[in-house]
Specification:
single chain; 391 residues; four-stranded mixed β-sheet; 3 domains; binds flavin-adenine dinucleotide; four-stranded antiparallel β-sheet; 12 helices; EC 1.3.99.-; flavoprotein; Butyryl-CoA Dehydrogenase, subunit A, domain 2
């Protein structure tokens, strides 16, 4: 086990050796596959390098948040994959630790920790994405618990998940954010149907999930029935904190790759000057994002929530990442689409097209750019509130 003294130094050495073993089994290009991420989750767990800040009684190490942040940065710099249960680690586990009963913590935390029980997040619905408060999935009270009916969409990893943390309406005829509950639903229960959605990258990481009279026993609501909105908002704050760090490190790597691609590109001097100016603008944006993430993480390390800084970070990061990939594709031209076999003047790695297409989702997932702008406008600039969002 990595000792607490010299933790980061020892963790660095362990990570390098473990990643070499992982990559021997899963080549780099496939490091985002569920199999690789599952194996990585297991390896971290066996080395006691997961759940670093959790209480000891749930398998954690009670390390300070600042150490967790530094560990995440280290993992990102070494291009470690995300453990398979990263959604649960980022969003659900801190929420469970804060709002869960002892029985809920004992039941769910071990499977989150070792990755044996994968979770998905069931918030969005066909008519309800940005305006989460209009959730229509309903749970009817039954003598032994609840019966859930409804439909969720864009549910990442639902096809792999054993559990779903979902926002459902438990008070009939309630409106907006009142009457919602944060429910923990067994995806193996009778009446749960998962239908994959194919993305433009060709992969199918997202799903539509149908609940048809799904029985959910007592004890599967986090907090009190009707308190779901407050809990979901607290959970959202965790999503913008520590687990954002790897994305910023990844963006910095992608910027460096873009700068290298520009250096190699066979361009006329005037064309080069145009591209160079755009790349410099992106480098400046990445620097601002770095300052902002450092500030957010300082807040988190001192026990605060990211708040408005989290919204600004998400907005700047997602838009900049899109522009970095647009610029990369523009530099490569047709080679970006045709890949390494194109016979173009210089080869485009096969991953370029995937990342370019993937980056289109970043300004939608976890709150669209328009919604982040609304938040900044209202909370920072004092503009009038968007009535639909605050109904
Ligand atoms: C890659 C990916 C993974 C995802 N994973 C999950 C998941 O695991 N679980 C889950 O629950 N959801 C998930 N989502 C769904 C995601 O949370 C929603 O797509 C997002 O919240 C937007 O909702 P929507 O798609 O319904 O768009 P809508 O809310 O219908 O918005 C459509 C357009 O209108 C704009 N708009 C909406 N309201 C306003 C407003 N008030 N002011 C200004 N503009 C507005 C939006 O910005 C957008 O451009 C995922 C999405 C993506 C892309």
């Amino acid at each position: 086990m990595i000792r607490t003294e010299n933790f980061l130094e020892d963790a660095d050495a362990w990570l390098r050796a473990a990643l070499a073993r992982l990559r021997a089994r899963y080549p780099d290009t496939a490091s985002h596959t569920p199999e690789c991420r599952q194996a990585w989750n297991r390896m971290l767990c066996e080395a006691d390098l997961i759940a670093l800040t959790w209480p000891r009684e749930y398998g954690g190490r009670e390390l300070p948040t600042a150490t967790l942040i530094a560990f995440h940065e280290l993992c990102a710099r070494l291009h470690a994959p995300q453990p398979i249960n990263s959604i649960a680690h980022a969003i659900l586990a801190p929420t469970l630790l804060r709002f869960g009963t002892p029985a809920q913590k004992a039941l769910f935390l071990p499977g989150i920790r070792d990755g044996s029980e994968i979770w998905c997040q069931g918030y969005s619905e066909p008519q309800t994405g940005s305006d989460l408060s209009s959730v229509r999935t309903r749970a009817r009270a039954e003598p032994a618990g609840w019966l859930v009916d409804g439909r969720k969409i864009w549910t990442t990893q639902a096809h792999l998940a054993k559990w779903c943390f979902a926002l459902v309406r438990t008070e009939p005829d309630s409106q907006a954010h009142r009457g919602l509950s944060f429910m923990l639903i067994d995806m193996r229960a009778h009446g749960v149907r998962v239908e994959p959605i194919r993305q433009m990258t060709g992969e199918a990481d997202y799903n539509e999930v149908l609940f048809e009279a799904v029985a959910v026993p007592e004890g599967r609501i986090l907090g009190e029935p009707g308190e779901g909105w407050r809990i979901a908002m607290a959970a959202a704050e965790y999503e913008r904190g520590i687990y954002f760090m790897p994305r910023v490190v990844q963006l910095e790597d992608e910027l460096r790759e873009l700068e290298a691609a520009l250096a190699q590109a066979p361009l006329a001097p005037d064309e080069r000057a145009v591209h160079a100016r755009r790349v410099q603008d992106l480098a400046d944006a990445c620097q601002v994002i770095r300052w902002r993430v450092d500030r957010v993480l300082r807040q988190v390390a001192s026990g605060d929530t990211p708040g408005i800084d989290g919204a600004m970070l998400k907005l700047m990061w997602s838009e900049t990442r899109q522009q970095v990939w647009e610029q990369r594709v523009e530099l490569l031209g047709e080679a970006a689409i045709l890949g390494p076999q194109a016979g173009a003047p210089y080869a485009a790695p096969a991953s370029v097209l995937r990342e370019f297409l993937w980056s289109r989702a970043e300004t939608i997932v976890a709150g669209t750019s328009e919604i982040q702008r609304n938040i900044v406008g209202e909370r920072l600039l004092g503009l009038p509130k968007d009535r639909k969002q605050h109904a």
